[in-house]
Amino acid sequence: MDNFEDENPFETDVDRVPSETSSTSKVNISEPSSPRNPARTLSSTSPTLSRPFPSSGTNRHPQSTYKSDFCCGRDQWLHSGEDLEILITDAQKTSLNSNTPYITYIIRAGNAEARHRYSEFESLRSSLVKLYPTIIIPPIPSKQTIGDYATKQAKAKEDTAMIARRKRMLQTFLNRIARHPILSNEHVFHRFLDGEVSWTEVLHSPPLSLLPKNTLKAPSHNPTDQSAASAYAALPSPSATHPLRHPDQRSVDSEIFTNKFANHLSGPMEKVTRRTLKRWSENAQDYSELGAALNGYSLNESGALAAAMEKTGQAVDTTYMSTTRLLQELEQNFSEPLHEYAQFAVIIKKLLSYRHQKHVQYEMTQDALENKRELLEEYEKSEREAKRLDEALSKGRVNGLRSPGSPAEGSEGQSQPQNQPQDEAEEPGSTYLPPHPGPNPYKRRAPGMGFLNALSYTLHGMMDVDPETARRSSISKTRETISQLEDALHLSAQDLKYSSSTIQADLDRFQRQKVADLREMTISMARIHRDWCKKNLEAWQAAKKEIEKIPDHPNKRSPSPEQRTVPGPSGLRRDSTATVNGR
């Protein structure tokens, strides 16, 4: 684990202020990117607040010191400077505006109350992913699997444990957004918390209605900006697996570390945690059956033995209840956060993939621009050669007119005929065409070829374009394409620089959040086991007192002087050999 932590490319020191561009990208840009929305700039440091899990760590945004203008009441409440928390108070089954029943979650943010179903939480997150392609958007609980629907069928959506788990994880999702230095300022999130706003209207109104279908062909700092749509349309859409010629080393390190982090979480840690919880659950079930058996057996006895058996059964029942409680707390405070961070690893992979695609997009645009410039150079070279040839031909025709008896110098071996009329000879740009010999009487056409020849002649007439006009049109189109690619390359370079710096800054923030959350998780696990042991110790100490009231076996040997002076580790102990042999 030491080597694993040493390879961490993210910033974990809170006191260290990251540079403006955390990436080591070799993109040479004269002008820095200037995002239109200043709220999208990540702060370097943030104060640490003490609160239960999920720990805010160091990712709590600065409060009213930096924010004085508020877009709505929810925004003012979120940045009021108090230690606030969004709560999901209940989950109710309803059929409002739907033909089938569904579960709606009641959200309380201050004095506002909103009701949303799971699909609306999902649409909120997908909208934030499109609005902020360079920010780590917190995950929401996973959907039900096909196996859950197959085993529970129609009752899958009414699973009490699943609903309770979704309540907790959706509440964590909302609070993570509320504590984010950028996402907490998004008005779409504020409207989601406002119960008086229709979420359907929010999804079909700006800025969500202005989002492009492909975020790679939109500005990274503001995907809804359509002022440079034509330039972004010229950018390619590379795949995530396209190799880079000049990869950014820090991005490569981040990808390697994220893959290791994801493999650790989704591999050994989650598997062992699920197996441990399963065994605790089986153990609790065994304790439940054992306690019932002991309590039933105590009814058949009398005296001190019955009281001791009953007390032992009660201790076993206490162990069962404390184990059940331990299971619930481990699920809430360790297993669910662990699964959440496994989802975070997948999200970070997609974020780094977006940055990779932006870098590939920049390189592909560079290649396309170079190819178009080479093509333009070839077109211009052909144009120069054509002009030179036209000048030579014109010069040759002029010389031919001056000396009709001699061959023209620039006509490439052709001469003017002597009997050519004067008006044809003076016509500029005309060339000598020999008279058509007429149809060959000995050549017979194949039947049906007349129609094909006529069709071919028509098609050739349609496709016959003046080469000079086509060449000049190609030059004009190529220059226009080069101009668009130059604008697109400049925008792509700015996007790459902004994406690299913003993604790296948010990864550094996430690393500090991860350290704080893992600390809370391990402390919670220690506290849970301590409370479990403490409660069981009290129950079994009470059972021990009742067991000691049972009289000794009548055939028990009297203790020797050494046994009287040297008590055992648990005080007076019954001699099991006397019970076996004393008849």
UniProtKB/TrEMBL annotation:
Biased composition (Basic and acidic residues): 544-555
GO biological process: autophagy; protein transport; retrograde transport, endosome to Golgi
Coiled coil: none
Residue intervals of the PX domain: 80-199
Annotated InterPro entries: AH/BAR_dom_sf, PX_dom, PX_dom_sf, PX_Snx41/Atg20, Sorting_Nexin_Autophagy
Membrane topology according to the record: Peripheral membrane protein
Keywords, ordered alphabetically: Autophagy, Endosome, Lipid-binding, Membrane, Protein transport, Transport
Keyword Lipid metabolism among record annotations: no
Gene3D superfamilies noted in UniProt: Arfaptin homology (AH) domain/BAR domain, Phox-like domain
Ranges annotated as biased composition (Low complexity): 40-56
Start-end of Polar residues biased regions: 19-36, 412-422
Compartments it resides in: Endosome membrane
Organism superkingdom: Eukaryota
Region (Disordered): 1-65, 389-447, 544-583
SUPFAM superfamilies xref list: BAR/IMD domain-like, PX domain
GO cellular component, one term: cytosol
Biased composition (Acidic residues): 1-12
Family listed: Belongs to the sorting nexin family.
Protein name listed in UniProt: PX domain-containing protein
GO MF, one annotated term: phosphatidylinositol binding
